[in-house]
Structures are given as C-alpha cells and as structure tokens.
Amino acid sequence: MTVSTMTGSTLPTLKNGDSGDAVRFLEQLLSSIYWFGLQQGRPSLITSNVKFDAQYDNQCQQIVTEFQENYNATFPFPSPDITVDGVVGPETWKALGDAIFKYTY
Questions:
Q1: Cβ neighbours of residue 67 under 8 Å, at least 6 residues apart?
Q2: What is the per-residue pLDDT for 85?
Q3: Distances (CA, A) of 66 to 44, 52, 83
Q4: Are 27 and 52 spatial neighbours (Cβ–Cβ below 8 Å)?
Q5: How far is CA 76 from CA 3, 70, 73, 96, in A?
Q6: Which of 19, 30, 51, 58 has the most CB within a 10 Å radius?
Q7: pLDDT tens sequence across 51-65
Q8: Closest residue by Cα to residue 48 from 68, 61, 63
Q9: C-alpha to C-alpha distance for 59 and 30, rounded to whole angstroms
C-alpha cells in the first residue's frame, strides 16, 4: 500500500484577488480552527466572520493575517515563526495543518 502525503509545495499560493476551490478549502480550514479554538481552556485563534464564498478578498486576507499572528503567539518553540503577510504560501499551509492537528487531537 502506498501512502501519499501532501506538502506545502504542492498547494497553491493564495492571496487577495484569488478565487476558486482552493480558497473555499482555505475558508473551511480557517473556520474549523476557529470552532476548535473555542473549546474550553483553548485560545480562540481567529474571528468568527469566515464566509464560504471562495473569494480571497480583504476579509479573508485579514483573517489569514490574524491566523499568522496568532500562530506565532500560540505555537511556541519548536514551531518556527511564520511570515505575517496575509498570503497563504508553503509555511502558512503547514501552520494551518499544525493548527488543525493540535485542535482536533
């Protein structure tokens, strides 16, 4: 049996102005992180205003930026700080995966 893994380098870089299925997936990840972050004793990572419209607009960029800032503040060493730029590149995709893993297990 072959196990396939997905790395940040195979995911598209997303930024303001982009749209489509990859953006919708990003919105779903951000929303999941928010809801898991609401659990008692765990920090709330992002705003609740995630819209599932597959549009990387100003609001989506703001939420990504907030996630990046909070990731750096919430995930201590050995997690590396990620760039806070509102762009979802390889390091932010990895951070999103780390956050989902942390808040779901």
A1: 30, 33, 45, 46, 92, 95, 96, 99
A2: 97
A3: 11, 18, 11
A4: yes
A5: 30, 11, 7, 15
A6: 30
A7: 789 999 998 998 899
A8: 63
A9: 12
Q: How far apart are CA 37 and CA 71, in angstroms?
A: 12
Range list of H helices, 57-89: 58-74
Other C-beta atoms closer than 10 Å to the C-beta of 56 total 24
Q: Which amino acid is at 49?
A: N
What distances in angstroms separate CA 88 from CA 38, 83, 93, one per listed residue? Answer: 23, 10, 6
CA distance 32 to 50: 10
Q: 58-74 and 90-104 helices cross at what angle (nearest 10)? A: 60
Question: Reduced to 3 states, what is the DSSP secondary structure of residue 51?
Answer: coil
Q: pLDDT per residue over 50-102, tens digit each? A: 678 999 999 899 889 988 988 888 877 777 899 999 999 999 999 999 888 87
* Gap between the Cα atoms of 41 and 89, Å rounded: 30
